């Protein structure tokens, strides 16, 4: 829809000029399109601020008219000096709070108009968002993985396979089911590496490009399933400003980072993701985002180019949806039991990390 026509529709919607059928259609469109919903909210705020500005402009004009009448009556002189102080003081006491608000209205309106201008300006290209998967060149420079004896261990990557990309992933079931980003798995197969440098063969169980999530299954006799996972996966949304931390593999060793949830939606108001303020680099894609209680609240996926620390994470509730879809489509798989209880609540951060390291993997995708 053309932006001007869309703005006209929003104006009519907010003013109540739409008939019942048109209003129902627009509300459905708003519910299913986060960008339009955001435009409605911002335009409503803009109109509200304009109303406030109009009220205070009228107040200013009324005060000026009152001052002129006081001059005519001789109750104040031309220099502004009071001849009858009591009445003007009462007037000031009555309106001083409103006048202070009026002084800030101009600045608020300027900010709102600037925000709308930025919102309506076209996106230059897709380079504004960067995926956090690791490039082929970086992987090739790091053929040998963690561990002091790793050079003595033969890699499980097929001999004639071509490395495509890399990232991070974490267990969602002790039996060896791992979640990562779909964009990490650009090849036909993958190996995963734990924090001790052990490699395991893995197969791609499911990929959802829309949610940018994928499930891997470790199929390797060398893998010893964990008894349980120390964290849970949060089904509900998390709170704005909540402290978060992550573990992942932007380099050969596992790396810790911390920050906070900075927005309830992602880039361009994407409702599938959160915006988090945290440093993230290529290789962090697919890494878990934890809150202080050891609950997974998201999966790191992308970052905004030329904006330090502005990173996006797929909301954890999408993991539940994906597992349900996989269970319904492939009944031959073992039932995935997502962790529902965290044993990390109230535990010191260093100890939390120690318990989590074995659950986070370096994911390397290849094509035969």
Would you mind describing this structure in some detail?
With 368 residues, this protein is α+β, with helices and mostly antiparallel strands. The protein folds into three domains: 3-120; 136-218, Trypsin-like serine proteases (Thrombin, subunit H), CATH 2.40.10; 232-358, Thrombin, subunit H (Beta Barrel). It contains seven helices and 14 strands. The strands form two sheets. A six-stranded antiparallel beta barrel has the order 8-9-10-13-12-11. Helix 1 (3-15) crosses helix 3 (34-73) and helix 2 (20-32) packs across helix 3. It is elongated and about 100 Å long. It starts with a helix and ends with a strand. 29% of the residues are buried. The model is unreliable at 109-126, 137-141 and 143-153 (pLDDT under 50).
Give the count of helical stretches.
7
- Could you say which overall geometry the principal axes of the C-alpha atoms support? elongated
CATH superfamily label of the largest domain:
Trypsin-like serine proteases
Low-confidence stretches: 109-126, 137-141, 143-153
**Main β sheet profile:** 6 strands, antiparallel, barrel
């Amino acid at each position: 829809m053309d932006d001007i026509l869309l703005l006209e529709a929003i104006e009519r919607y907010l003013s109540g000029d739409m008939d019942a059928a048109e209003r129902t259609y627009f509300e459905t469109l708003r519910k299913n399109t986060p960008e339009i919903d955001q435009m409605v909210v911002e335009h409503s705020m803009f109109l509200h601020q304009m109303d406030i500005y109009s009220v205070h402009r009228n107040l200013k004009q009324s005060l000026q008219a009152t001052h002129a009448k006081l001059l005519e009556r001789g109750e104040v002189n031309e220099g502004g000096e009071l001849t009858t102080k009591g009445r003007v003081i009462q007037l000031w006491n009555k309106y001083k709070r409103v006048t202070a608000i009026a002084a800030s209205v101009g600045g608020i309106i300027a900010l709102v108009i600037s925000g709308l201008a930025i919102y309506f300006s076209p996106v230059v290209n897709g380079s504004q968002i960067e995926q956090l998967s690791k490039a082929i060149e970086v992987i090739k420079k790091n053929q040998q993985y963690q561990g002091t004896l790793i050079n003595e261990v033969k890699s499980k990557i097929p001999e004639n396979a071509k490395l495509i990309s890399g990232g991070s992933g974490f267990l969602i079931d002790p039996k060896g089911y791992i979640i990562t980003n779909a964009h990490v798995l650009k090849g036909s197969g993958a190996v995963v590496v734990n924090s001790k440098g052990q490699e395991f063969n893995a197969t791609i169980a499911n990929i959802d490009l829309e949610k940018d999530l994928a499930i891997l299954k470790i199929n390797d006799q060398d893998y010893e399933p964990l008894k349980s996972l120390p964290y849970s996966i949060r089904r509900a949304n998390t709170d704005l400003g909540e402290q978060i931390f992550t573990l992942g593999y932007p380099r050969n060793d596992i790396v810790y980072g911390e920050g906070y949830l900075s927005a309830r939606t992602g880039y361009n108001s994407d409702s599938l993701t959160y915006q988090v303020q945290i440093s993230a680099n290529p290789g962090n894609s697919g890494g878990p985002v934890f809150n202080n209680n050891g609950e997974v609240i998201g999966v790191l996926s992308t970052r905004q180019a030329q904006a330090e620390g502005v990173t996006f994470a797929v909301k954890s509730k999408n993991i539940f949806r994906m597992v349900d879809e996989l269970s319904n489509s492939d009944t031959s798989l073992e039932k995935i039991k997502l962790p529902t209880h965290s044993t990390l609540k109230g535990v010191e951060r260093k100890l939390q990390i120690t318990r989590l390291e074995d659950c986070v993997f370096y994911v390397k995708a290849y094509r035969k």
